[in-house]
Amino acid sequence: MIFRQILALIRQNPFFSAVSIIGTTVSIAFVMVVYMVYDIQTANIRPESHRDRMVYSSYGYSFRKADHSNSNTGMSYQAASRVFGDLPGAELVTYMGNSPMEYCGVSPEKGRRCQRRRVDLNFWRLYDIRFLAGRPFDQQEFDACADVVVIAERLAREAFGSAEEALGKNYFVGFYPKRVVGVTEDVSSLFTFAYGEVWTPYYTKDPDWGSEGLRGGFEAMVLCKPDVSPAEMKLQIESSLDRLNASLTEYELTLPDLSTYTERQFFRDDFLSPVVTCIILGLILLIVPAINVSGLISSQMSRRLSELAVRKAYGASRSTLIGQLLLENMLLAFIGALLGFLLSCLLLWLGKDWMLAGGYTEGNFEVSIWLFLRPTVLLSAVGVCLLFNLLSVFIPAWNATRRPIAEVISGE
Q1: Three-state secondary structure along the chain?
Q2: Alpha carbons 304 and 240: distance in angstroms, whole number
């Protein structure tokens, strides 16, 4: 009966229904865009399945203690392993060498620029990258920094026709031939740290660049144990860094960009919380349109005061009437929410290059539709719909049901 009554109200008031649906659609679309940008950039999404437990060193820099001169960006492998190699709260630590764009292809004459990653064995344990053929390089190949390479499926298909055909073949990286030992699924450059197109081992022996062995091109990524928070891990890293610097006589290493994944992607200042900022922005985008829709609903309810008064006269409680009014407008809210969610997906898809990639789309920047259809996103859309309905309907319903029965029936 309630459902039939809702449909009858929509048919009787097409203009009001259309305006209400459009207002809900636009509001929820923009709120969901804000939420999805934040969620996609920070949630645990394969292959970066442990973002909430990660701490990143960045490259750091070293300088002479006496006068802060001879400053050099970068951290050597030896320095990184001394700082991060024995952390009690770390479940896993991986080091990544500098990752340039290099010319890659089936021959020196035929290829293109690709993102090369210099990684160790722990990289494959930390990031959930699926192998379509072959395997990652093993410990012996890594220790010898052998001429082996893991490549992405897209490169394997371009060069050899399929992932299976690529195994054992020579693939040129930086004009040097390397043997293909594995082929992975394509990884989107949306995933800042897991992304790559070719992966090779790195040398663990740093060149002698001076600065007491601090200079180099490595950064560390630490996976915290489940019972260790990123804040506690930062303290452990800083304590280990202090011990390293205390053992040095002339130079000092500093890691000013030590950060969690969220801090790395968004704000790093303590007074700017990404969560609070997104919530405030979402509420502003939600409340202002809800107030406008609330005015329309108030006007609509003024026509139904006599109906509400009669129901109260026959024993309907105030809470019952408010509940029914909320339920009646819920259908319009859900229609608007569905359209708003679809619109937010479209806006995010069209604007993904600058909303998700920050303008950097030189690599394989592909966004799967499943990023938008995850359970958390869908549940959030429902929650926003319920909140919008409550904000826009509750106050008009409250005011409409508080009028005395005699006053309404008499037309006062």
Answers
A1: CHHHHHHHHHHHCHHHHHHHHHHHHHHHHHHHHHHHHHHHHHCCECCECCHHHEEECCCCEEEECCCCCCCEECCCHHHHHHHHCCCCCEEEEEEEECCCEEEEEEECCEEEEEEEEECCHHHHHHCCCCEEEECCCCHHHHHCCCCEEEEEHHHHHHHHCCHHHHCCCEEEECCEEEEEEEEECCCCCCCCCCCCCEEECCCCCCCCCCHHHCCCCEEEEEEECCCCCHHHHHHHHHHHHHHHHHHCCCEEEECCCCEEHHHHHCCCCCCCCHHHHHHHHHHHHHHHHHHHHHHHHHHHHHCCHHHHHHHHHCCCCHHHHHHHHHHHHHHHHHHHHHHHHHHHHHHHHHCHHHHCCCCCCCCCCCCCHHHCCCHHHHHHHHHHHHHHHHHHHHHHHHHHHCCCHHHHHCCC
A2: 71
Give the Cα separation of 117 and 94 in Å (integer). 13
Is beta strand 176-184 parallel, antiparallel or unpaired with respect to 251-254? unpaired
Residues of the chain with pLDDT under 50: 359
Answer yes or no: are the C-beta atoms of 61 and 84 closer than 8 Å: no
> What is the rounded CA–CA span in Å between residue 299 and residue 36?
34
> Phi, psi (5° rounding) for residue 409?
-65, -35
Q: Which residues contact 107 (CB under 8 A, 6 or more apart)?
A: 172
Strand pairing class (148-152; 170-173): unpaired
Amino acid 407: pLDDT: 61
pLDDT digits (tens, 9 = 90+) for 195-242: 999 999 998 887 667 788 899 889 999 999 999 999 999 999 999 999
| Stated pTM of the model | 0.78
Q: Where are the domains of the chain?
A: 2-45+271-409, 58-257
Tell me how far apart the terminal alpha carbons of the chain are, to the nearest angstrom.
31
CB 51 within 8 A of CB 44: yes
